Amino acid sequence: MAGLNAVQQAVSLPAACQGTAQVFAVCLAHVAGPPASLRESLRHAVHQSICSTLAEVLQCDARQLSVQRMPGLAPMLLLGGSVHAAIRLSVAYAGASALWAWSDRAAIGVDVQAVPADADGDDAEWHAVARQFIGPAAQALAPLQGTALRAAFAQQWAQLEARLKCAGLPLSEADARPAGWDAGVQCVPLPWRTSGGVAAVALAWRS
Questions:
Q1: Between 20 and 30 A from 163 (CA), which of 14, 101, 180, 197?
Q2: What is the mean pLDDT of residues 161-190?
Q3: How far apart are CA 87 and CA 76, in angstroms?
Q4: CA-wise closest residue to 26 among 58, 56, 60, 50
Q5: DSSP-assigned states of every residue in 124-172
Q6: What mean pLDDT do residues 27-49 have?
């Protein structure tokens, strides 16, 4: 991508969601500086990736496209300064890497979570947070501990965040979310590794 030391690649999708969305990874290489500068460079690279990729899809000049960000909302694609409502976007960041997804068929959400180190916190704390935010699905974590618990927690959290993004909802405790908030939302893990190591990745879409 022009002006940035960034690499883009398509992410392979499971059969269950092929044809519904497309997902791309954007990775920065050899970037130094404070975290805020890294995030801004990565965000710029992601926006370039979105515009160049979707310019081919929409058969327009990439310079006609831009990405609008608003706190608490999914990014929106602008064509000539106006929102292109048919294209839905979702973006997730992890260190010097990011994933972005688009669809013209369904609401979508993508998320990536680094797998915590085994020494981060004790098992009781991880179980408590899972029950509080993930909800009933956290019961599957009950027999796990240590490294296995951290990995499974990251996967469940990535799926939760992806489903919330798809539903257009902010993160909240499980009992604060409205009944049926994820009705019709499907979610699958994605086989992708960040440049920094192991991560849990999930894609959600509304069927």
A1: 197
A2: 95
A3: 8
A4: 50
A5: HHHHHHIIIIIGGGGGGGTT--HHHHHHHHHHHHHHHHHHHHHHT----
A6: 83
